[in-house]
Amino acid sequence: MGTRGQRYRYVGPAELKEFVRAGGVGRSIRSAADFGEWVSALTRDELAEPFTFVVDGGGVLRLAPRRSEHVVCAGGREVLSAGEMSFREESGRWVVEEVSNQSTGYCPDINSWRAVAKALDRIGIHRPPGFTHPVTFRRCHSCRELNIVREEDFVCVFCGEDLPREWNVGQPG
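Predicted structure:
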């Protein structure tokens, strides 16, 4: 863990890395002006759906259309967080309506919220106090399958073994 928080490497299907382009497809949002320019180019229909997001290794929020793969949005690089985010305009300013860490490509821990909060605060977008839809990812030590923990039931849905309480998805082997 560095000073910016844990970095998450891509752990999803290898074939999706074929779509990665240098620099990624995600739009970097470094300021309120960047966000304003980006959001003004969107249609009402586009705004009605959540967006794919990553917080890159430099702490910058990157946004892409929802059906974009996180690894493509991030240009194949490690991220500080990843998931889906939706926005709405409220009293003349933009706010995050919903945000999750749902990314089966990076499987970020719920603790990655700190990086999301910092990125949103930097650009002046009002945000909730945490993920509105947190997802708990764990890898089974026995069968190595990726699991989404539901209702605090830390049991592998594939083999029935207990899952670790601590995030372990990016650990080797």
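Summary: The mean pLDDT is 92.
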